[in-house]
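chain below, 285 aa
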Amino acid sequence: MSIKVSNLFYTYAKKTPNEHLALNDVSLEIKQGDFVSIVGHTGSGKSTLVQHLNGLLVADSGLIEIDDFTVYPYKQRRKNKKLHSLRKHVGVVFQFPEYQLFEETIVKDVAFGPKNFKIKEKEATEIAKKALLSVGIPETYFERSPFELSGGERRRVAIAGIFALEPDIVILDEPTAGLDPKGQEEIMNLLVKMNQEGKTIILVTHDMDLVLRYTNHVFVLKDKELVFSGTPIELFSHNREDLSIEIPPLFTFARKLKNRGLDINISDIRNVDDLFEQIQKEKKR
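prediction:
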């Protein structure tokens, strides 16, 4: 499912002393099957933007088109009759989603979403079990309380809760926050697997290493506006202090090697293994 956002404006707490603009004329497009990131400093509008993509927030003006679904702005909100169906196609995993787990067992927690879409309990339970297995949670864990699991395991259970709805688009807000390196790698490997299966992945993150390593396109928000759209390599190839973006250390190191005469192709470097491979090739010449 492709996404088109056109001239989106959104203001929090309108007509109150706390009124403030959160999105200012944001337009972007995401193709089906993309793995994209949305980055920017705190308060730039990232989380506000993604909450519009499944109708959790409705814009002051502008349109969101996701295949056959259109999310209309507030003045035309009566046209928004398919938001419930849209949320089955566009799943959002909020930051620290494990704190939203509430059922006595993880299988019941994951089954809650399908049951909310009028699926009978027996079928919803089978869907939940399949979703849990798909994110690497073994059957022996199904009857455990969410609070008996590690942080990484709870994060995967929360993702399974969205996965159980079989969305075409999965949005994740800081999915690796607070996890140890092993937990981070498990979550990102899961997202890669989902993307390879055809799902569109939208990653909201402050971690530029994740942007470089995993995503094929990046959108940068600054002061509520979209200020950059392009590949991670295009973003990191120039000084980006004006965008409040920190260039990944790996990319900075690779660029220094190239500037000192090492003939490497920076555009092919996404991780340490890529850099090592290019250095080895250069040594053999």
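The mean pLDDT is 89. The chain has two domains: 31-56+83-240, 248-285.
thats it, cya
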